[in-house]
Amino acid sequence: MVRRILLLVFLLCAGGAHADSLRLVVPEAKPVVGEMIPVTLRGEYTRLIALETLTFPNSDDYDWMQLARDQWRDEQIGGRTVRVFERRLAVFPRRAGVLTIGPVVHHLTLVGVDNLREPFDVTAPAVTLPVAPFPAEGRPLSARSLTIEDTLSAAPGALRDGESLVRRVVLKAAGTLPHLLPPRPILREPWLISFVAPERRETRLTPEGPVSTVTWEWHLRPKTGEPGVLPAVSIPWFDTVTRQMRTAEIAAIPFGYASFGDNRSGVDRLPVADLAAGLLVFAAGIGAGLVAVLAGASRRRAGVLRTLRRLSPFDPARRRLKRLARTGDLPAIRRAADRYLRRRRELGLAVTGRETARLDEILYRPSEGIAPREAETAIRGLLNHR
After folding, report:
1. What is the pTM of this model?
2. By C-alpha distance, which of 223, 228, 229, 247 is closest to 237?
3. 236 Rama sector, left if φ>0, alpha if ψ -120 to 50, beta otherwise
4. Domain containing 345: what range?
């Protein structure tokens, strides 16, 4: 009888020792740097738990995140009802070599005899696994899948004069963290004006792990309208499903104003009225020159011509600038302003060099921020300059 009682006590103690346990469950694999390692922390308890706290340890060797809320449930193990605790995590190794995870301590407060509380710690031993180097040069990027969404606000090779192109690229990767996605590509060309919006990095939890996205946005405008090509951007990444390197690409795009091939939509061709006025001024200049020659004033011919042109009521450059101010065609307005100021310098009129400062401020900022009358107001100030 005594032997049976001792055996029963032994079995109860042995069963309790087996059940009150905590362990790290890690798949048998050889991940590469940056690859998500699914980790499950599992505890099995037989005693009544009043309180519990558990903090997963940080490390310089990995990044980690919790994938879901802790789960508590009852299971039948060895013929006994056991309280099971599970926490699902994802670990991302930062470097190659042997990776150590843990140990992890679960701090419990148990309900003892006479409802007394007693502290009780259960420790999950550390686990180790080998991590392979990232199989390519450059910044490691490992994911289950990776997609690129490239959205353009207009046809990039056929922009209207003065139009800005808004390019938005969304990079989405499953099985990685937002800060492990690559940095924003640099779109820089000698003929390009580029404004960038702040990037956005986000993550969404799924049962299979995090899905991270980064959004880049550029406001692009040609400097001269001359057509060019924005080159492609390649993003190498390791596919954790096929265990192979792959390359995602932000496609190359043609870029420029549609009007460039048609002499910039004819913005450099004078209308009939301006051409007639110009011919009249030209004829007046020729006539004044002949008068000066006949009068024997050849040494003062240039001064006489400047005086006649200054007093002439016909100024095609001024008329053209006023007409374009109503169209909102900023590049054409800027070129017409240069012609107007060049004529003033030729006539000896005052030019400070700061007349186009306000116009340049409007021209070289995103077009969405331009008020309808801003360009016209800037031109009116330029023409009223004396």
Report:
1. 0.63
2. 247
3. beta
4. 263-383
